[in-house]
């Protein structure tokens, strides 16, 4: 997913930038809704990322895990995997499906929803977004369920001043109904999501493990960025430890503690994700994928692939071929 033209062992000054390089979002639909002062809306698991912008009043977010957290006015909320969640004026409000509201099409992919008769509550702008990688990619799997521009929400130091400007620009695109608004919103949403991720990383809005902790850590972040730049490389424990300047045992312990799994397991998942893309998207033969990843035999590659992905590479490739044939 990332630029693989550079040397995979090059030291990374900013691992976050390296890991976000090449990560792109494409807007599918955008919806704007003026809420009542009292409201509750649920969002089903759509299999894609969700972006919410709340403007005009505070509200509450029920996270995918079930906990309610307060969302201040002007906050951007990003759910990278788009799992089921809810927005409400208070946690005890009854929830109605957001998608059930009648909508007026403003332009391609942009809708204005009728979410209540009295109004007076916040305006919620929501986007259903697709990454150029899918939810099974290790990079997305390590992201937290919810990220938000918490520096703004908690009186940050002003480094995220671009966030409210972007939110205002998105609101103007929706309200003015100008030609090309959908395309402009998609680009603004891409930038806004990246800023929310950066704000979340920089301002301590996550626990001590997983992807956020890893990219905060310059040593582990450097290793992760190198793996994602060139997943086809031979990533031995010694090579990864050398990037961090640590012993193999010290590196392995630190990596597992911060990332939440062993270096070998993480590398294997990254490599098998790449192989899955080759088989499904590019239609290459299983033997070719095994050779590209340096496996001694097609059988050993197939066993490793099935253990991690859950289906044999041959079956996956055949299903992709059948789907492509039926679409013709």
TrEMBL record:
Q: Which GO terms describe its molecular function?
A: DNA-binding transcription factor activity; sequence-specific DNA binding
* UniProt KW keywords: DNA-binding, Transcription, Transcription regulation
Which superkingdom, per the lineage?
Bacteria
Q: Which residues form the HTH araC/xylS-type domain?
A: 221-319
Q: Which InterPro entries match?
A: AraC_lig (IPR032783), AraC_XylS_family_regulators (IPR050204), Homeodomain-like_sf (IPR009057), HTH_AraC (IPR018060), HTH_AraC-typ_CS (IPR018062)
Under Pfam families, the record lists: Cupin_6 (PF12852), HTH_18 (PF12833)
Protein known as: DNA-binding domain-containing protein, AraC-type
């Amino acid at each position: 997913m990332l630029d693989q033209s550079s040397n995979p062992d090059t030291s990374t000054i900013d691992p976050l930038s390296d890991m976000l390089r090449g990560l792109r979002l494409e807007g599918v639909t955008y919806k704007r809704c003026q809420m009542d002062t009292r409201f509750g809306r649920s969002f089903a698991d759509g299999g894609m990322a969700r972006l919410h912008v709340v403007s005009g009043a505070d509200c509450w977010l029920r996270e995918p895990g079930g906990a309610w957290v307060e969302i201040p006015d002007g906050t951007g909320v990003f759910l990278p995997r788009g799992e089921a969640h809810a927005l409400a004026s208070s946690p005890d409000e009854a929830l109605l499906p957001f998608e059930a509201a009648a909508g007026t099409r403003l332009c391609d992919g942009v809708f204005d929803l009728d979410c209540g008769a009295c109004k007076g509550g916040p305006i919620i702008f929501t986007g259903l977004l697709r990454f150029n990688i899918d939810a099974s990619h290790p990079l997305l799997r390590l992201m937290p369920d919810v990220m938000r521009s918490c520096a703004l929400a908690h009186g940050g130091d002003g480094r995220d001043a671009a966030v409210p400007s972007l939110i205002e620009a998105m609101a103007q695109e929706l309200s003015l109904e100008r030609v090309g608004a959908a395309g402009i919103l998609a680009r603004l949403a891409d930038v806004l999501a990246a800023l929310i991720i950066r704000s979340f990383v920089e301002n301590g809005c996550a626990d001590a493990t997983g992807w956020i902790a890893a990219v905060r850590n310059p040593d582990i972040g450097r290793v992760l960025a190198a793996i994602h730049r060139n997943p086809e490389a031979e990533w031995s424990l010694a090579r990864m430890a050398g990037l961090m300047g640590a012993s193999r045992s010290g590196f392995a312990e630190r990596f597992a503690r911060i990332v939440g799994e062993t270096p070998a397991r993480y590398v294997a998942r990254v490599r098998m994700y790449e192989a899955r893309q080759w088989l499904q998207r590019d239609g290459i033969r299983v033997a070719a994928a095994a050779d590209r990843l340096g496996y001694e035999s097609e059988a050993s590659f197939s066993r490793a692939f099935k253990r991690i992905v859950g289906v044999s590479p041959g079956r996956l490739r055949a299903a992709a071929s059948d789907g492509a044939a039926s679409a013709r």
